[in-house]
Prior knowledge:
Elements: E1 2-4, E2 13-19, E3 34-42, E4 49-58, E5 81-88, E6 91-98, E7 110-116, E8 122-129, H1 132-142, E9 147-149, E10 161-170, E11 175-185, H2 213-217, H3 221-247, H4 253-263, E12 271-273, E13 279-281, E14 284-285, E15 290-291, H5 297-300, H6 305-309, H7 311-323, H8 366-381, H9 386-392
Parallel strand pairs: 8-9
Antiparallel strand pairs: 1-2, 2-3, 3-11, 4-10, 5-6, 6-7, 7-11, 8-10, 12-13, 14-15
Amino acid sequence: VEVAYPKSGLPVNVTLEAFNPCIPFDSKNSSYPAIIFNYTVTNPSAYPVQVTLLNSQQNLAGWNGQSEITDDVMDRNYGGNSNIMLSLKNMVAIDMSNTLVDTFHNSNGHIANAVLTEDGDTVSTMLQFDSVRVMWENFISSRGLPGQGSEGLSPHGKTWNGALALTKEIGAGETKVFTFILAWHFPHRYQDWTQAAFGINSDSKSKWYLGNQYANFFPSITQVLEGLRSDIDFLTKNTRNFRDAMFNSTLPWQLIDSAAGRISVARSPTSMWLGDGRFYAFEGCNTTAGCCPLNCTHVWNYEMAIARLWPDVERTMRDVEFLNGQLCPNFQMMSRVTVPLDLRRWFSFLSAPGYNPGQASTAACADGEIGGVLKVYREVKMGASKDWFDSMWPG
Length: 395
């Protein structure tokens, strides 16, 4: 996303570049749980100026992602929220967590509001506050933030916000970049959709643990931040290179727009790169949940973006189809998969008395089965090894 802020009333020119790292053929570096905000500030005057930019973020740890947050900071799932300051090399961050949520609960994790720093920069913080107005009044009255703010853990039903401000001196005609980072680390994902139509009639109060692949790469929020700080130039350069290659193409803009839009699905709640290292996806999602689980062959059969951008990730879908869950003993391929993969397979229920596979749409789809074969060929053309092919197609 690129934004040029209106110049009216501002003594400096400001533009924003915001992105999540997205680098073809580099799935690990494209999986950072973070958004990078580069504010480019130019001083067009003949005099040096001091510029301060502020970033504020709510501590969302404990929130279920669905209930309404009222009065800015109130929700029944909040309480026990804590914001602390992290001082890392060339970076200051506010680490936000919840001390009362169960250790392995899916809402137990960390959010970080961070900023990169250079020699001569000044950073101020307001670690905990519940009123944006009070925070703003502190900021404009002192051209900075007061430090701690509210003390202690947030009370039941309430969370804290946290803000940090970065000040740079910009000389006459000079340009400087302010880089803020919003990062998160929520490693505990569970199967929270019904699989009853596939024979899995589990107790609704029990959830199967799935995890997130990014937590295998980055075991803590600190490692997320330190990786971003160390690799920021590489991540920025290569994400820009991909953007430029895409949008500077001589193809009609309609085709470019359509192709670029497909990439966003991999960043949406429709898609999941789970802790077992495999990629899974719904057919789509609404504002509260995914729809029509999971890896439907006659929907994802027509998806090409992931195979072209991250072929190693796409190959994990073939791994599921042919080796770990969708292929029946009679070599019929089921149209969907249940997770985790060590659960009883859907095809084993087909002969059960009274079971109606029509409950879950068509149990097997010819276009999905034929597509599975064609996609194995595609993955080989995209660089899959002979060993991988032999595992898919023994003999």
